[in-house]
Write a structure and sequence with these properties.
- This protein has three domains: 3-90, Alpha-Beta Complex (Conserved hypothetical protein from pyrococcus furiosus pfu- 392566-001, ParB domain), CATH 3.90.1530; 97-197, no CATH class; 199-379, no CATH class.
- It has 401 residues and is of the alpha/beta class.
- The model is unreliable at 198-209 and 240-244 (pLDDT under 50).
- The chain has twelve helices and ten strands.
- α4 crosses α5 (133-148).
- It has a seven-stranded parallel beta sheet with strand order 4-5-6-7-8-9-10, covered by helices on one side. Strands 2-1-3 form a three-stranded mixed beta sheet.
- β9 (349-354), α12 (360-372) and β10 (376-379) form a beta-alpha-beta unit.
- It has helices spanning 20-33, 54-63, 78-90, 97-124, 133-148, 152-164, 167-174, 180-198, 231-236, 264-276, 310-320, 360-372, and strands at residues 41-44, 49-52, 70-73, 215-217, 250-253, 281-285, 301-307, 327-334, 349-354, 376-379.
- Helices cover 41% and strands 12% of the residues.
Length: 401
């Protein structure tokens, strides 16, 4: 085939690096013996572009050949052609770190796009997706790993490096100046450092959800949701705002995260930390009380359950009866819907927060239920609705005899 008719295009030309040593050897052999017809260039027929054989093609160009042997293959789309190109090369060579990183990011994007297209088609036919985002990401990582012949762990480390986007780390790995493992470690350490700096001041004034505790505290690893070994030490050794002592105070644990989202082992570890730290009162919250039934929380724990409707309140009340914790509270969203609690004898605390168009009648109904069951009541600062009652005053100004 006429060498001038063969196209060299991305992303195929950028898949693998051409080794200078290999190129020199092939070029020297080609000058001395001509092109080896048993090693044709592989092209994608409909696109007339190279899929495999870039080093041989470059050598043929360099020595001035006009005709080279080719084999044409046909693919349904670019992704299928890319998969062929990689499968054809991966067992011939040892992939370098930069090549692996480049290929992982390329195929991850391709497979994600493929998944997105399937979702769009399913949406048009009203067929809902049965997979969560996490499951889909895992499947994508496994597919990329299988295509490249590497471990899923390597794929996920590269995604952490790329997604976190620490420029100097990404550039170093792409240039081969830093290994993938080292790049991953540097990225995770930097992420944890930033997380630590953001939470170094634990004063609850930064919390927008509820001002019921002096301090907030996040003992969870942000990636894997495990309790960190030095979690309570960090709490004890935190630099405290002037004139405030970190003792005998209330600590709001991870106010931005449902406590039930972590593992049962992590929950048991957290319960042990609470028990060992009796100088603190710990507040946690969850919308999934059924997942907390297996944990025996110590006496210095308060567990809050948010509810937003009458229906949700009945379901939550039926589930939290079996949660083993001394103090339980309901966070009630106040709007126009009244709550009717059949029994709240096992509830100790009602916390009221504003919803849409909160009304005093709803607030009053919750207060009545709380008082009937000897529960404490807490109004969030942003719940400004208050009773506005006036006594009945006679307009008859006549003095009585």
């Amino acid at each position: 085939m006429d060498i001038r008719q063969i196209r060299v295009i991305a992303p195929f030309k950028d898949l693998f690096n051409i080794s200078p040593m290999t190129f020199e050897a092939i070029e020297r052999h080609m000058r001395e013996n001509g092109y080896d017809d048993s090693q044709p260039i592989t092209i994608w027929g409909s696109e007339q572009c190279i899929i495999d054989g870039f080093t041989r093609f470059k050598a043929a160009q360099h020595i001035g050949l006009n005709e080279i042997p080719v084999v044409e293959l046909h693919f349904s789309d670019e992704l299928e052609a890319l998969e062929y190109a990689v499968h054809n090369q991966r067992d011939r060579r040892n992939l370098t770190g930069p090549e692996i990183m480049r290929l992982v990011n390329l195929f991850y994007a391709k497979y994600n796009s493929q998944t997105h297209d399937k979702k769009k088609r399913a949406k048009k036919t009203d067929v809902p997706s049965s997979e969560s985002e996490t499951v889909q990401q895992k499947r994508t990582s496994e597919k990329v790993a299988d295509t490249l012949g590497i471990g899923r762990g390597t794929v996920e480390k590269i995604k952490v490096i790329t997604d976190e986007g620490i420029p100097e780390v990404v550039q170093a790995v792409e240039a081969g100046e830093m290994t993938i493992n080292r790049g991953y470690q540097e990225t995770v350490q930097e992420k944890q450092k930033k997380k630590s700096e953001q939470s170094s001041s634990m004063l609850i004034k930064a919390d927008k959800s509820i001002e019921i505790a002096k301090y907030i505290w996040n003992p969870f690893d942000p990636t894997f949701m495990f309790i960190t070994k030095d979690a309570i030490d960090k709490l004890k050794n935190t630099k405290i705002t002037k004139n405030i002592e970190l003792k005998n105070c209330t600590v709001y644990v991870s106010p931005d995260r449902d406590i039930a989202e972590t593992s049962i082992n992590a929950l048991n570890s957290l319960s042990d930390i609470f028990e060992q730290s009796s100088q603190f009162v710990f507040i946690i919250w969850s919308r999934q009380p059924e997942k907390l039934e297996g944990v025996n929380w110590p006496l210095n724990s308060i567990l809050l359950f948010p509810i937003e409707s009458q229906e949700e309140s009945q379901q939550t009340l039926s589930e939290i009866k079996n949660v083993q914790i001394a103090t339980k509270g309901l966070i009630c969203k106040v709007d126009q819907q009244k709550y009717r609690f059949s029994s709240t004898s096992f509830i100790d605390w009602f916390i009221l927060e504003p919803g849409d168009n909160p009304s005093w009648e709803v607030v009053e109904s919750i207060i009545k239920s709380a008082r009937d069951n000897n529960c404490s009541i807490f109004f969030k600062n942003n719940l400004t609705i208050r009773p506005k009652e006036f006594p009945v005053v006679s307009t008859n100004h006549r003095k009585s005899d």
